[in-house]
Each structure stands twice: as structure tokens, then as C-alpha cells.
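Shipment paperwork, digital attachment
Item: protein structure file
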Amino acid sequence: MAQVKLFYDHVGNTLTLWFDNPQDEYICEETGDEVVLMKNKSGRVIGFEKLNFSVAKSDQLKVAFETVAV
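Attachment content:
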């Protein structure tokens, strides 16, 4: 079964999502939308980080995933 890892840093206001092993990160690329793409050696995106992401302390962070057969 595939796994994703989700981290929310309420102090740094970042949301990080990994599709693959974080230790395989080789290079990062920042897009123009305050998103950082983490890539492995072959250039495949294995995760991303959303900068300036915040959730009010009274709110819960709710996450939903949809899978697509490849």
C-alpha cells in the first residue's frame, strides 16, 4: 500500500507532503506560488511544501485524498 506523510508546522506556517521517502530528496525547486517541490535524483517530484500556510488554532486541519489508477 502506498503511503503519504503529511506535516504541518504551525510555527513556521508550512504544510509538507511526501509521496515517497524524504531521504531520497536530492534537489528542491521553488515555484511562483509559494510551493517548493522536492525531487529525487531522477527529477521525479517526491513531495512538496506549501509556504505561508496557516490554520486558525480553533480549526482542525482536515485532509482528503483521492487515488487514480496508473
